[in-house]
Design goal:
alpha+beta; 45% helix; GCC-box Binding Domain; three-stranded antiparallel sheet; 5 helices
Length: 127
């Protein structure tokens, strides 16, 4: 890499450069797995340990966990997910996940998602 290509930028400036040069999101091409493999991983839940499954597919144990809990490789992106005893609301805007907060109940998380989603859609209609 040439030093002439290096410069100081904020994260936002770097993201704009990535979009300008067509490299935005190239790192997130879902890596080594196919949708079929993700489905196979979900089907193995309870039959093998997460580490055994990770070793079978050449991914990390945490990636297996995320697939099994629906935080990764899910066709339907719900507005919330559960981790431990908490529910976390999230919103996707232009392919980016925005965390909205943590809640004690699924209903609270879902209500937060619905309210924020309505605000984003209203803003998109007026712009």
């Amino acid at each position: 890499m040439s030093p002439a290509h290096l410069n100081w930028k904020t994260t936002s400036q770097n993201q704009l450069d990535r979009a300008k040069h067509g490299t935005k999101g190239s790192w997130a091409a879902r890596g080594k797995l196919t949708p079929e493999e993700a489905a196979q991983i979900r089907a193995l839940k309870g039959q093998k340990t997460q580490q055994q499954i990770a070793d079978m597919f050449g991914v990390s144990r945490s990636q297996v966990s995320w697939i099994m809990t629906g935080r990764a490789w899910t066709k339907e992106r719900k507005g919330y997910y559960r981790s431990g005893k908490k529910f976390y609301a999230r919103l996707y805007v232009d392919g980016h996940e925005i965390q909205l907060g943590s809640f004690d109940t699924e209903e609270e998380a879902h209500a937060c998602y619905l309210a924020e989603n309505a605000k984003v859609r209203a803003a998109m209609r007026t712009s």
